[in-house]
Design goal:
Diaminopimelate Epimerase, Chain A, domain 1; 18 strands; globular; 6 helices; 21% helix; 18-stranded mixed β-sheet
């Protein structure tokens, strides 16, 4: 079988920035093992697989090692593929996913996504400062999937070199590290998920479903301009809206071709 594949730099306004995602366009889903093999072969943080469902699409996301229930940057990349390549001129697409229906619409300069909020609550996690090599300034938070650790400054987040092997052993999918922002950003963050085959994710839309709620409790506001300070880096504009988080970002196409399996 031969099908189209796209590689898109998401949450980026130029190539070689943001977070690269593969988007594979299918008529129907093959066996899960085949999807996982393709994602492992691509060896990107996420590969998205989309299947038409009327005028909507079904969407699933795989890291090189596991399927995940929500991925922001690969949803953004999938929307760019649908709205710029498969249905040029359309303004909106709805993806049906393990996290419910996710709507993405075209806006000036990019796309706007409507995602579920991930509320956070404090937990005790002794030893995390040692894993990070820097003190955690607040009680660790849990969004039911990831842990969130706040550091004293954006500079500490940017220069962080944590113990990835120790993070992989934590009882969570990943670890979000964050701090109040520098420059013109409300907050900065980085995301590590070595246990799921992603040592560091360049820009993580789903993490901002937690971070928007987390920082709303600390900054007393609901709209944010955030920066994920990985080596590639990316800007995420996000807004808490009740039980939803609205995310905005742009995309740049890098690769278009076909794969056979």
């Amino acid at each position: 079988m031969t099908v189209p594949i796209y590689q898109v730099d998401a949450f980026a306004d130029r190539r070689f920035a943001g977070n690269p995602a593969a988007v594979v366009v299918l008529d129907a889903y093959p066996a899960d093992g085949t999807l996982q093999d393709i994602a492992a072969e691509n060896n990107l943080a996420e590969t998205a697989f989309i299947v038409p469902q009327g005028e909507d699409y079904r969407l699933r996301w795989f890291t090189p090692t596991v399927e995940v229930p929500l991925c922001g940057h690969a949803t953004l990349a999938s929307a760019a593929v649908v709205l710029e390549r498969l249905w040029p001129g359309r303004r909106k697409v709805v993806f049906h996913t393990a996290s419910g229906a996710l709507a993405v619409e075209r806006i000036d300069g990019g796309y706007r996504m409507d995602f579920p909020v991930r509320r956070t609550s404090p937990i005790e996690l002794p030893g995390l400062s040692k894993i990070l090599g820097v003190d955690v300034v607040e009680e660790v938070a849990d969004d039911s999937r990831n842990f969130i650790a706040q550091l004293a400054s954006a500079a500490q987040v940017r220069s962080l070199a944590p113990d990835l092997a120790a993070i992989a052993k934590l009882d969570s999918a990943g670890l979000i590290v964050t701090a109040r922002g520098d420059q013109d950003f409300d907050f900065v963050s980085r995301y590590f998920a070595p246990g799921h085959g992603i040592p560091e994710d360049p820009v993580t839309g789903s993490a901002h479903c937690s971070l928007a709620y987390y920082w709303s409790q600390r900054l007393g506001k609901t709209s944010f301009r955030a920066f994920q300070a990985s080596p590639r880096g990316g800007v995420v504009v996000c807004r808490l809206d009740g039980e939803r988080v609205i995310l905005e970002g742009s995309c740049v196409f890098y690769l278009e071709g076909k794969i056979s399996f």
